[in-house]
Design brief:
alpha/beta, Rossmann fold, ATP binding, cytoplasm
């Protein structure tokens, strides 16, 4: 009987020792699993956090490489280079530059070309009535939700949800922080109230981000930050008079239509037509610029030259091969063709607008008369 008891104790002892060793192994596996789970969770959270910072806080998608910012094609005659060098000179002197001039004179292309020469990233912003302070600076856009899982205890899962506001930086904040060149196109079309935030940027070198929570509500302006504004002359529709306090902190460079040779080079860079056709179109637009009460810019000459390239082979019966819509233009001679094309190009400036020209027929008549003279 004693022997049986001793045998049973020994068996039970081996079992206890085996159970303890199994429990130790199980604990070790659980500890290893928890460690791996914690490492993975931290890694994923950090990755998400970094991704959120890049995609929402930094707004790096606004940044344009200077090589990509330069307009293509861009004609650089002596006249163009002189104005561009004047702009870059003021930028080197740490002065904001305001390009002012008629529509279609190439202000935006000139601003982008000047910005690209600095070798710094470029940020482009377009002004209109809808632009307010948040459109320039940034704002909160919904929220971001994260979930953390705690499975330290086998069979028990604990979830914790973390929600935080999602801030999106807009063009001004990105340019100020990264030392980019901000090209603010059609600056005077925006409401002046939206531009109050620019006063501290240009004067104190600090950008306040209204509505931003936390300690990073303001941004110190990067020493390489520069800004180029472009605006049409004040007599154009939809143009706002900006506050004197802001205008006093920038220099104004007038951009007018270039000389005839420069305009011919610009048109030639955009349209593949004969030199004779380019000269005819440019001479016609420059004459109409002086005679008509509507804006006849360099862009008008480019579009008209494109029209000539399409309709020059018109035979009166079929649409030119390049015409995808099958449209027709009835012409009797070169002057009539040019008058028709220029009427099409300038027509939107007359139709539905208050001008001294009473409709499309009157526009065509005046253009034909000018061309005959």
């Amino acid at each position: 009987m004693a022997e049986d008891t001793s045998r049973k104790r020994k068996v039970r002892g081996r079992k206890i020792r085996g159970d303890r060793e199994a429990k130790k192994r199980l604990k070790a596996r659980k500890k290893l699993a928890r460690s791996a789970s914690q490492t993975k969770t931290k890694s994923e959270t950090a990755s998400k956090s970094r991704g959120s910072h890049i995609a929402t806080e930094s707004g790096d998608d606004h940044l344009i490489d200077p090589a990509d910012a330069a307009p293509d094609p861009f004609v650089e005659t002596d006249a163009v280079a002189a104005v561009r060098d004047r702009i870059t000179g003021w930028l080197a002197a740490d002065q904001p530059v305001h390009l002012i001039g008629p529509t279609g004179a190439g202000k935006t292309a000139l601003a982008l070309a000047a910005a690209a020469t600095r070798g710094r990233p470029v940020v482009l912003c377009n002004g209109d009535e809808a632009v307010d302070t948040s459109a320039l600076v940034g704002g909160y856009s919904g929220g971001e939700r994260y979930e953390e899982r705690d499975e330290y205890v086998s069979g028990v899962s604990k979830k914790t949800q973390i929600v935080r506001d999602r801030w999106v930086d807009n063009p001004l904040s990105v340019a100020v922080r990264e030392g980019a060149t901000l090209v603010y196109n059609e600056f005077s079309r925006s409401d002046p109230a939206a531009h109050n935030v620019l006063l501290s940027v240009l004067e104190e070198g600090v950008l306040e981000r209204p509505g931003k929570h936390g300690a990073n509500r303001s941004i110190d302006v990067h020493p390489e930050f520069r800004v180029i504004f472009t605006s049409n002359d004040v007599e154009y529709a939809g143009v706002h008079q900006q506050q004197d306090a802001l205008l006093d902190r920038m220099v104004g460079v007038h951009v007018d239509y270039y000389d005839a040779e420069t305009e011919r080079e610009i048109v030639r860079s955009h349209v593949a037509v004969s030199d004779e056709a380019i000269e005819t179109v440019v001479d016609a637009t420059r004459t109409l610029r002086e005679e008509l009460p509507v804006v006849v810019g360099t862009r008008t000459a480019i579009t008209a030259a494109k029209g000539i390239s399409v309709f020059d082979d018109w035979n009166g019966d079929e649409a030119a091969p390049e015409r995808a819509d099958g449209g027709r233009v009835q012409v009797d001679g070169d002057d009539d063709l040019l008058a028709d094309v220029l009427t099409d190009v300038l027509g939107p400036k007359v139709a539905g607008a208050e001008t001294e020209i009473d409709g499309m027929a009157a526009l065509h008549s005046q253009i034909s008369e000018v061309l005959r003279d």
